[in-house]
From TrEMBL:
This is Methylthioribose-1-phosphate isomerase. PANTHER family: METHYLTHIORIBOSE-1-PHOSPHATE ISOMERASE. Keywords: Amino-acid biosynthesis, Isomerase, Methionine biosynthesis. The active site is at D244. It comes from the Bacteria. It catalyses: 5-(methylsulfanyl)-alpha-D-ribose 1-phosphate = 5-(methylsulfanyl)-D-ribulose 1-phosphate; 5-deoxy-alpha-D-ribose 1-phosphate = 5-deoxy-D-ribulose 1-phosphate. It comes from Candidatus Sedimenticola endophacoides. Belongs to the EIF-2B alpha/beta/delta subunits family. MtnA subfamily. It is an enzyme of class 5 (isomerase). The gene is mtnA.
Length: 352
């Protein structure tokens, strides 16, 4: 099959597109300078796209993996109509190895594996595509629900600080943290959004600022180190962030820098809200200490925009997530409801 260009305008709500029987990802490494889609035809290329940050954000990674399973099933069924279920296991393993922290990846792969198990003889593509589309659609719907639940907790109008990009780009649409911020904006509760620039990948300046400004929300960028000083000036009601994995006791793994933001928030009497779908809650993991934290190439810190900024010969420590203890979190907002001052008992009740 020939490559078919995707003739649509790039939009945050269309970061992941299934069209012409193929998967297209808005290449988030190029934003905001270039708005280009990358076409993916195979599971292996999709796994590489996840590792290389073409697509990022916990729910978006899971949705991408679900569509990649459709591509894998197509190839494996063409190879062998009898043995495709056995052979696809290596594709599922490859996808699961693409990034370690966001539990949505493993959640989505498990859901696709479960669907595969129910299939009989015959071409599996239509059934698996329908499952991947459901995962995609359900995530966008969950974000709308979370948006309203989260916005209801905000006494506005107030300003908020967000970290990384937990927006439409990072999800099936609308966003988790940015979903709450969008709903608060619609409800007239939002004065200003301060977006941490989020070194080293600059998801805040490149993605959150792009996404919010295109949609007409009032967004101001902050160097990560400026957030505490902005809190000290007053007028910040909430820190609102997403999550890559929430442990059973309410500890929250999210983009590196979230923990220091939460510590500073507690000092300044600013509340912390984590917006995440229940697919981000991992009840198998008792506390944050057990969440695998991805470490990436030191060059991501030593270079900026392709230019070396670290002194020659110097090393860098580059964990890309950190864990905020549950005690520093005021609310976890999911599509099933908001949990205030989260702990194990409350999360068990929510997930029951
Ligand atoms: O490394 P990234 O860009 O994948 O990290 C993303 C985050 O940390 C987000 O805050 C998190 O996935 C929540 S996205 C709705």
């Amino acid at each position: 099959m020939e490559a078919q260009p995707l003739n649509i305008r790039a939009e945050a709500d269309r970061a992941i597109v299934w069209e012409h029987d193929r998967l297209y990802l808005l290449d988030q490494r190029l934003l905001p300078a270039r708005e280009e889609y990358l076409e993916l035809r195979e599971a292996a290329a999709s796994a590489t796209a996840i590792t290389d940050m073409v697509v990022r954000g916990a729910p978006a990674i899971g949705i991408t993996a679900a569509y990649a399973v459709v591509l894998a099933a197509r190839a494996r069924f063409a190879e062998s109509a009898e043995r495709w279920k056995e052979r696809i296991e290596q594709d599922l393993r490859l996808l699961a190895a693409s990034r370690p922290t966001a539990v949505n990846l493993f959640w989505a792969i498990e859901r696709m594996r479960g669907r595969i198990a129910t299939l009989g003889e015959g071409d599996p593509e239509a059934a698996l595509l329908s499952e991947a589309m459901s995962i995609h659609r359900e995530d966008a719907a969950a974000n709308r629900a979370m948006g309203d639940l989260g916005a209801a907790l905000i006494d506005g109008p107030t300003s908020v600080i967000t970290h990384c990009n937990a927006g439409a780009l990072a999800t099936g649409g609308y966003g988790t943290a940015l979903g709450v911020i969008r709903s608060a904006h619609v409800a007239g509760k939002l004065r200003q959004v301060y977006a941490d620039e989020t070194r080293p990948w600059l998801q805040g300046s490149r993605l959150t600022a792009w996404e919010l400004s295109r949609d007409g929300l009032p967004v101001t960028l902050l160097a990560d180190g400026a957030a505490a000083a902005r809190m000290a000036q007053g007028g910040i009601g909430w820190i609102i962030v997403g999550s890559d994995r929430i442990a059973a006791n309410g500890d929250v793994a999210n983009k590196i820098g979230t923990y220091s933001l939460a510590v500073a928030a507690r000092h300044h009497g600013v509340r912390v809200m984590v917006a995440a779908p229940t697919s981000t809650i991992d009840m198998q993991v008792a506390s944050g200490e057990q969440i695998p934290i991805e470490s990436r190439d030191p060059r991501e810190v030593l270079f900026c925009g392709g230019r070396q900024v670290g002194a020659e010969g110097v090393d860098a420590w580059n964990p890309v997530f950190d864990v905020t203890p549950a005690g520093l979190v005021d609310a976890i907002v999911t599509e099933r409801g908001a949990v205030l001052s989260p702990d194990r008992e409350k999360l068990e009740k929510l997930m029951a």
